[in-house]
Amino acid sequence: MISHNSSFPFTFTHPKVIMAIWRKLWCRNLLAVSLLFCVLLHTINVNARPANMSASKDKPPASKDENEILPPDHLNGVKLELDGHLNKDFHQEVFLGKEIEEFEEDSEPRRNRKKLIEIFTKVDFNRDRSVSAKEMQRWIMEKTEEHFQEAKRENRNSFRAVDPDGDGHVTWDEYRVKFLASKGFNEKEIAEKIKNNEDLKLDEETQEVLESLKDRWFQADNPPADQLLNEEEFLSFLHPEHSRGMLKYMVKEIVRDLDQDGDKRLTLSEFISLPVGTVENQQAVDIEDEWVRERKKEFEDVIDSNRDGIVTMEELEEYMDPMNEHNALNEAKQMIAVADENQNHNLELDEILKYSEYFTGSKLMDYARNVHEEF
């Protein structure tokens, strides 16, 4: 009997393997072959069974309802992620706005090149065939506003999902029921247990998520606190980056996670420390080098505005505010400097095409070919 080996090039349900076994054993033992064939047929039937008839049920992906009512892990146009990591896609998000999805890595380069030329002509507000820092700043603010308007549109749908009676406000208990229902709990049973103040018997992970959401929920409840969220407050709950009060809360959470000595400020060493649990191997060393290099540069050149070696909550709040015009101007200058090969502090079309991967995440081939003719 042949044992299963994960390195074997075929599985035993492959048709070629079945036929090879059949031919080899035919003359030796017809009965054995028949039994083997029956077993293999049974295996094929089990493997080919439709997903909804599977003997073991895999954990389903996040449902549409869950995606609608949970705060997103990633916030477009914000420099730091909620876990304190640098937003690797920030440059593309503030340069492309809602068009970022059109620049996929596997999309047709010529189409992306044409689209990038179109964007350049829009950023070049005075039509002098070069982009200044002020023009780039204006463009960044427009694209950030696009992200905000998209968040507001999504929030309307999300609010309806948790406000089925349409009374214009949602209690924490109403939200809690919808959240747990999106996690697979029976909505009626959960609602009844909450109404009767019964133990919900949640697992530890779900309970921790609920506690975090509850804290965030009450932070989004504007004064006078009534423990109810209207649509605008629910937007702050889902997207804290566009609410001054919730932005402060988000900064406080990030500082709490990174602050090692509890002084509510961040030193360079605290900001560049790798997350706990990093695997100690050569790959981890490479990751650490890149992590330290990128975060050190961001800390010293951008976040620490007064260059005193300490980042306060106020400095981090200003850094993370997506509608901060001063930040937008600094970002514009930084983006131009990356591609400014002729050092004139402006951005020309051939430069932006050459450095397309930085601006769009998509590398264009033959960037300089017929640039001026197409432009």
Automatic annotation (TrEMBL):
Q: Which domain of life is it from?
A: Eukaryota
Q: Where does this one sit in the cell?
A: Golgi apparatus lumen
Q: Where is the EF-hand domain?
A: 111-146, 150-185, 251-281, 291-326
A GO term for molecular function: calcium ion binding
**Keywords of the record:** Calcium, Glycoprotein, Golgi apparatus, Metal-binding, Repeat, Signal
Please note every region of biased composition (Basic and acidic residues): 56-67
Q: Gene3D superfamilies, per this entry?
A: EF-hand
Q: Which PROSITE patterns match?
A: EF_HAND_1 (PS00018), EF_HAND_2 (PS50222)
Q: What is this protein called?
A: 45 kDa calcium-binding protein
User: Which GO annotations describe the biological process of this protein?
Assistant: calcium-ion regulated exocytosis; sprouting angiogenesis
Give one Pfam hit by family name: EF-hand_7
Q: Which SUPFAM superfamilies match?
A: EF-hand
Taxonomic lineage: Eukaryota, Metazoa, Chordata, Craniata, Vertebrata
Q: Where is this region: Disordered?
A: 51-70
Task: Give the protein family.
Answer: Belongs to the CREC family.
A single GO cellular-component term from the record reads: endoplasmic reticulum
